[in-house]
Amino acid sequence: MNFLIDENFPANSLGYLSQMYRGHFFDHVVMGNYKAGIDDLSLFTEAKRQGIDVLITGDIRQITGQDRLNERKACRQAGLHWLGVPQVLKARGKEGKWAQTNSLLSNMRYALPVFESATSPTAILLRPGSIKLQAEKEFPQLL
Fold first, then answer.
1. How does pLDDT run across 27-67, given as a tens digit for each residue?
2. How far apart are CA 27 and CA 49, in angstroms?
3. What digits encode the pLDDT tens for the residues 83-125?
4. 25-28 and 123-125 strand pairing
5. What would you report as the CA-atom Rg of the chain, rounded to the nearest whole angstrom?
6. E strand segments, 44-140
7. Contact at 8 Å (CB) between 142 and 96?
8. Residue 129 CB neighbours (<10 A)
9. Which of the listed residues 18, 82, 106, 114 has the most CB atoms within 10 Å of its CB?
10. Measured between alpha carbons, how far is 100 from 81 in angstroms, rounded to an integer?
């Protein structure tokens, strides 16, 4: 599958995704053949024209915002799947980018089969990542 990472998502995720999910193509709006600041409606059409199957974005309002139903419709009409990765609101700077990227990296293996088996454009909205230690109950503990 071919994935396009929107300009509002950390560009450094491109390298990690390409290494972890070999056999799939990953591009980033800023680094690819897209106009800087391209509007979302045009982006959907252009992405599909360039062979993209899935848009990865941090702009979750494209799907959840009642004021942006036209964007959801345009994404569907372009035949794109959509993967939304929310920002961690309490995170700042690099910490927020890491949490968002980690959320995508750890969930991509579950999203791939959904998109691969979908017969029509499908949206997946991930839960926000965490900036807290995700240890089991009673950990950390002394060895």
1. 999 888 888 788 999 999 999 999 999 999 999 888 787 88
2. 14
3. 999 988 777 888 888 889 999 999 999 999 999 999 999 999 9
4. unpaired
5. 16
6. 54-57, 81-84, 123-125
7. no
8. 23
9. 82
10. 19
Report the first-to-last Cα separation within the chain, whole angstroms.
44
8 A C-beta contact, residue 50 and residue 33: yes
Beta strands in 1-143 (DSSP E): 2-5, 25-28, 54-57, 81-84, 123-125
Q: Does domain 2-125 have CATH number 3.40.710?
A: no
3-state secondary structure of 28: strand
pTM: 0.89
Q: Where do the domains of the chain lie?
A: 2-125
